[in-house]
Each structure stands twice: as C-alpha cells, then as structure tokens.
Amino acid sequence: MIVVKVGGSAGIDYDAVCADIAERFKAGEKLILVHGGSGETNRVAEALGHPPKFVTSPSGYTSRFTDRETLEIFEMVYCGKMNKGIVERLQRLGVNAVGLSGLDGRIFEGKHKDSVRAVEGGKVKVLRGDHTGTVEKVNTGLIELLLNAGYLPVLTPPAASYEGVAINVDGDRAAAQLAVALKADALLLLSNVPGLLKNFPDEASLIREIPAHDVESYLEFAQDRMKKKVLGAAEAVQGGVKRVIFGDARSARPVSAALEGAGTVVS
C-alpha cells in the first residue's frame, strides 16, 4: 500500500505522475493519490477578484486564510478542475480512478478552527471567520471499499468538520494521516523540488536521508510550504509508516524514482 501526495505548485508534471501510477496500479500495486492545487487556486482567485491571503503563525508556518468565499474558490479548483483533470488522465490510461474530496463520506474529518493567530507587522493578531482545520480521523472503510473493488482513489482537501462544515486542511498532513490509518508501507510527498534542501533553492544541497527518530530537527532547513511536509513526515513515521520520501514531481517516472531512493528518504 502506497500513498502518493502530489503538490499543486508550478512545474509539476501531472502527466508523468499519472503515467507512472497507472503502470504500477495495473501491475497490481495498491495506490492512493492525494493532490493539491495551490498554484491554480491562487490564479483563479486573482481572476475572480478575491486574491489569496496568506498568514504566518507565531511558530512560523504559512497557510491560506480561508474565508467562505475563498473556500468556495478552493473547492472549485481542488474538487473540480484539479481533481477531475487527474481522474481524466488516469481514465485515459486505462485506470478506473474515482475522484473524491475529504468532505465526501467524511473521508477526512477534523476540528474546525474558526480563528487563526497570525503575525502582522510584528504583532500577533487573531483573525476570525477562518474555515480551516487539521485531519484527525480518516474513513478507511470507504477507501478500502474502493480499493477492494478495483478502483484507484484520487483524494483532495477540503475535509469535513465534526459538524459537517467544509474545512481547508493541509494536504501533506492529510496524506500522512491517511497513510497511518491505512498502515501504508510508504508515503510519497512529491513537489517541484528534488527533496528537502539544506540550502534552498540550491538543488545540489539535497539531504538524502533523515533518521525517522529525528525528523523534527530538520525543520530548520524547510522553507515555506516544505515545513508542513516535514511535519507530515514526522507524523507519518511516528504513526508507524515505514518510509516517507520527499520526491521530485517534475521528472519522468516520479513515483518509481522516489521508491527507488531518489529524493529525501525518511526511515
């Protein structure tokens, strides 16, 4: 069982990701694909006159402030254009993929955070009206139903709150919770860099290996969104996932390359 998370930033080769997954799935491997869509969401939000607002927490994590209008744009892109674009690619490759959001069947479920603490101008402010949260529960029954019937699940945020409200959740940490819940053998976090870089953006400074017991000490090397990936990796290995690999989604056969050790391997 392998959980693959592919990001939504510029430069990602979705055709290569889907071709590699299709080949492995047809060979009998059990795979689940989780995807993002941040870059396209930013573009669409700008075009609709509601540009994205990013906030930085006091602990240094950057996230999207998700008011209701932003959430609706987020759903249009993640659940619509991105999800169905990936499902279509897989269908054309002969894989019977099923695209669902974490809201569907409460696949991803967690607590709704209505307010967020953000650093603005050197001061900590509390912003209200946020629709975010963290995945705490995974509906493995629905995922296993699909896998056992021969389907390939293609999953995306948002998640459902315990009250049934759509919430924006981090895709990397959602994929980590999914991998833990399904007792996956490996979690692949693919993005537009070759892995965790010691001196970002110098790709020659790739960190090849991270010991599983020491993941959080590598947070200092993570820039921006990579911080959430490292956090997700830490949560996955603490939850029993044997290997987490930060891989490059710009290359040919990105899933196979990552499983063969290209990128940053956490084990």
UniProtKB/TrEMBL annotation:
The keyword Hydrolase does not apply. HAMAP family: LysZ (MF_02082). This is [LysW]-aminoadipate kinase. Keywords: Amino-acid biosynthesis, ATP-binding, Cytoplasm, Kinase, Lysine biosynthesis, Nucleotide-binding, Transferase. Catalyzes the phosphorylation of LysW-gamma-alpha-aminoadipate. The lineage of its organism: Bacteria, Thermotogati, Deinococcota, Deinococci, Deinococcales. It is found in: Cytoplasm. Pathway: Amino-acid biosynthesis; L-lysine biosynthesis via AAA pathway; L-lysine from L-alpha-aminoadipate (Thermus route): step 2/5. CDD domains: AAK_NAGK-UC. NCBIfam families: argB, PRK14058.1-1, PRK14058.1-3, PRK14058.1-4. Belongs to the acetylglutamate kinase family. LysZ subfamily. It comes from Deinococcus xinjiangensis.
